[in-house]
C-alpha cells in the first residue's frame, strides 16, 4: 500500500492487528497499533479491545512488551476514555433537555 501511496485506514490496521493476534504474534500486533498511532490514525474500540486482550494474554504468559508500545497503547486508551466521557456528557445533557421540554408540555 505504501508503495502505491495508498494510506491505510483504521479498518486496514484493524484487520492486520486481528490477524496477528489470531496467529499469537502479539508483539507484531502491538507494533502495528503503535504504527497506527504514529501515523495519526486513532484506533477504534474494536482495535483497542483486541490489542488489550492480547496484551493481557501476553503478560500472563510472561512476555513483556517494549515500554514504548505500552506507553502508546496507554495514551490512546486515555484519549478514548476522555472521548467516551465527553460523549456521555453530551448525551446526558440532551436527555435532560428533552425531559425538561416534555415536562413543560404537560
Please outline what is shown here.
The chain is an all-alpha fold and 106 residues long.
Characterize the structure shown:
Belongs to the PPR family. P subfamily. PPR repeats lie at residues 9-43. InterPro entries: PPR_rpt (IPR002885), TPR-like_helical_dom_sf (IPR011990). This protein is mainly alpha-helical. The chain has a domain at 10-77. It is 76% helix and 0% strand. Helix 1 runs antiparallel to helix 2 and helix 1 packs parallel to helix 3 (45-60). The longest helix is centred in the C-terminal third of the chain and has 39 residues, at 67-105. The termini are far apart. The mean pLDDT is 76.
Strand/helix succession: HHHH
How far from one another are the termini?
Answer: 59 Å
Provide the structure class: mainly alpha
**Quaternary structure:** single chain
The major β-sheet equals: none
Shape by Cα distribution: elongated
Radius of gyration: 19 Å
Q: Which key phrases capture this entry?
A:
106 residues; mainly alpha; 4 helices; elongated; PPR_rpt; Pentatricopeptide repeat-containing protein
Tell me the layout of helices and strands:
Layout: H1 10-22, H2 26-38, H3 45-60, H4 67-105
Helix pairs in contact: 1-2, 1-3, 2-3, 2-4
Keywords: Repeat
Family: Belongs to the PPR family. P subfamily.
Protein name: Pentatricopeptide repeat-containing protein
